[in-house]
TrEMBL record, chain A:
A Pfam family: MAGE
Region (Disordered) residue spans: 1-106
Protein name stated in the entry: MAGE family member B18
Biased segments, Basic residues type: 1-17
GO biological process terms, semicolon-separated: negative regulation of transcription by RNA polymerase II
Record InterPro entries: MAGE, MAGE_N, MAGE_WH1, MAGE_WH2, MHD_dom
UniProtKB/TrEMBL annotation, chain B:
Domain RING-type, residue spans: 199-240
Family as reported in the entry's similarity comment: Belongs to the NSE1 family.
Stated name of the protein: Non-structural maintenance of chromosomes element 1 homolog
Sorted UniProt keywords: Chromosome, DNA damage, DNA recombination, DNA repair, Metal-binding, Nucleus, Telomere, Transferase, Ubl conjugation, Ubl conjugation pathway, Zinc, Zinc-finger
EC number: 2.3.2.27
Cell compartments where the protein resides: Chromosome, Telomere; Nucleus
Length: 345, 274
């Protein structure tokens, strides 16, 4: 059945309560904000009885269009609490809600709700977040409370969704949403891609490794099928596995997917992408494989040897890089000193 | 280790549930999928327990969800349960209560695309069958707000709606995806108070269903299935006239599992009925 009786009755009851307690649009909004209850009455245009509302106004607001990302978010902000996008209306409501703050004191909650919705959208779309974007959500009257709103929103994100809002660039004020729950092996894989893909990726990387660093697509699917992951079937965790491994992970440079040369009908093969090489290693993948099989890496002697060689090469590359950096820094320093010396002469 | 829920998060007088990583993981995955069928939801729940708390007993799904909803209440978000209109499968989605989640679309689509959706929505609601033909929708392309859109473009936008699970296409006609119905019911009722159809049995929003040819009342297919189950002489609950349509079967999750077909790939067996 559609929406259960209990939840409908609850919502209806709350709407009736809210209407009984207040008069008019702004009042209802303030009360709901203050009480932090009644979902529908908080945004009277969409929660209240149809006959109270000018029907003509409503259609334009909820499907508020996206001009630039910032505009969208402002629209989203407005469409919640105000019947139209006019910012003067916005201020009027804000003022009145401040006035009736006495209730049980939480007019900030509306803003927190909007911020959380905004953050969730950004998280889903894996887009970076700027402080400027977030500030645009908060109307003039609430700007002084921005830090509090941000703090509460982060707490919600952590408490309810297990997602951390981290400032990744303190100079340009860029934020990222990081999944705290991600089951990463030593956190080497980038968290931000969305949790379901990582174990799938690791499995594909291990198949590629086991196949001599280049795996025909059929082999990859053979292994995935054994785990109940099929190309043409939606998976209850991974969603669309085929799209993830042939498109998404390729786009993110974790995998390479190419046609087997001279194959007719065309067949395809997988290789590690540059990002996989950068962010993990053959040894780490072997460790993952070993854990899956409840054993240790050296139980696979030939792969273990290859992984060891790979580790040695990486160590050598790191050492060489360090040496180069040190040399570059030394020469830069000596040049700077020479310049100073000539200036002070 | 769970941080105490601050007072401003405790919306109603109802006791706020405790969120653990099991619940959080569940929410994350449900969000990623947009909408999930009940069977998948149960598997998802078990998966989350296995991953984060393998020794705990798996809570009953209804309680598990109510627990999560009590924490989400003050965010005006909830996990909502519904039923697909064509074959009665129970489905779940995370919906915004406050902005009636049409704003979920707002960040993915341009102004003219959203207007196209609005136009399609109107045609769907006004139609007898709950379906709007591609032709009729595309003919409205000139009336769209925002940047001018050609019919070719509009065809692609409609496909985009299908991909994002807002619309469903069947033989060149479009109707609302079950996710859209779940998320937008409130919005739809409020923006089309006169045109909107309601099921005579459950009083929920009705897009597709069966009608009584005598008195005109409508019912959802799954509602019809339940109401007339094992009734050899089905009669209209309103006017008592003989119910002229084929009575669908009640959805049986056990049968589905035995058949072993993937849920999302299975096409509904029943044809559309008026």
């Amino acid at each position: 059945m559609p929406r259960g009786q209990k939840s409908k009755l609850r919502a209806r009851e709350k709407r009736r309560q809210a209407r009984a307690e207040t008069k008019g649009l702004e009042g209802a909004q303030a009360t709901a904000a203050a009480e932090g209850e009644s979902p529908s009455s908080a945004c009277l245009p969409f929660g209240g009885e149809p006959q109270n509302l000018p029907a003509a106004d409503i259609p334009s607001t909820p499907l508020a269009p996206q001009g630039a990302p910032s505009t969208t978010n402002t629209m989203a902000a407005d469409s919640c609490t105000y019947p139209d996008e006019d910012s003067s209306q916005d201020e009027k409501n804000a003022t009145s809600s401040k006035g009736t703050k006495g209730r049980s004191g939480d007019p900030l909650n509306d803003k927190v709700v909007l911020m959380v919705q905004f953050l969730l959208q950004k998280y889903q779309k894996k887009e970076p977040i700027t402080k400027a974007d977030m500030l645009k959500l908060v109307t003039k009257n609430y700007k002084p409370h921005f830090n509090e709103i941000l703090r509460r929103s982060s707490e919600y994100m952590e408490l309810a969704f297990g997602v951390d809002l981290k400032e990744v660039d303190p100079i340009r004020h860029w934020y990222a949403l990081v999944n705290k729950l991600e089951l990463t092996f030593d956190g080497t894989m980038n968290n931000e891609e969305g949790m379901p893909k990582t174990s799938l990726l690791m499995i594909v990387l291990s198949v590629i490794f086991m196949q001599g660093n280049c795996a025909p697509e059929e082999e990859v699917w053979k292994v995935l099928n054994m785990m109940g992951v099929y190309a043409d079937r939606k998976h209850f965790i991974y969603g669309e596995p085929r799209k993830i491994i042939t498109e998404d992970l390729v786009q993110l440079n974790y995998l390479e997917y190419q046609q087997v040369p001279n194959s007719d009908p065309p067949r395809y093969e997988f290789l590690w992408g540059p990002r996989a090489h950068a962010e993990t290693s053959k040894m780490k993948v072997l460790e993952f494989l070993a854990r899956l099989h409840d054993t240790i890496p050296s139980a696979f002697p030939s792969w273990y040897e290859e992984a060891l060689k790979d580790e040695e090469e990486r160590a050598r590359a790191r050492a060489a890089a360090r040496a180069r950096t040190a040399a570059a820094m030394a020469s830069a320093r000596s040049r700077a000193m020479a310049r100073n010396f000539s200036h002070t002469k | 280790m769970q941080p105490e829920v601050p007072s401003y998060m405790q919306g109603s007088t109802r006791r706020v549930g405790i969120m653990t990583d099991v619940h959080r993981r569940f929410l994350q995955l449900l969000m990623t999928h947009g909408v999930l069928e009940e069977w998948d939801v149960k598997r998802l729940q078990k998966h989350c327990y296995k991953v984060h708390d393998c020794n705990a007993t798996v809570e009953k799904l209804e309680d598990f969800i109510n627990n999560i909803n009590s924490v989400l209440e003050s965010l005006y978000i909830e996990i909502k349960k519904g039923v697909t209109e064509d074959d009665g499968r129970p489905i779940y989605a995370l919906v915004n209560l406050a902005t009636t989640s049409v704003s979920k679309m707002a960040s993915d689509f341009a102004e003219n695309e959203l207007d196209l959706f609005r136009k399609a929505l109107e045609l769907i609601i006004d139609s007898e069958t709950g379906f709007a033909s591609s032709t009729n929708i595309l003919n409205l392309v000139d009336q769209l707000k925002g940047k001018k859109m050609r019919k070719k473009e509009a065809e692609q936008v409609l496909q985009k709606f299908v991909q994002h699970k807002w619309l469903v296409e069947k033989e060149g006609e479009f109707t609302l995806h079950c996710r859209a119905i779940l998320e937008m019911e409130q919005y739809i009722r409020e923006t089309h108070p006169d045109a909107v159809k309601v099921c005579d049995l459950c009083h929920g929003l009705l897009i597709q269903g069966q009608s009584c040819e005598t008195c005109g009342i409508k019912m959802h297919l799954p509602c019809v299935a339940k109401y007339f189950q094992s009734n050899s002489e089905p009669r209209c609950p309103h006017c008592n006239d003989y119910w002229p349509h084929e009575i669908p079967e009640v959805f049986d999750p056990e049968k589905e599992r035995e058949a072993g077909i993937s849920k999302s790939n299975k096409k509904p067996l029943r044809s559309r009925q008026h």
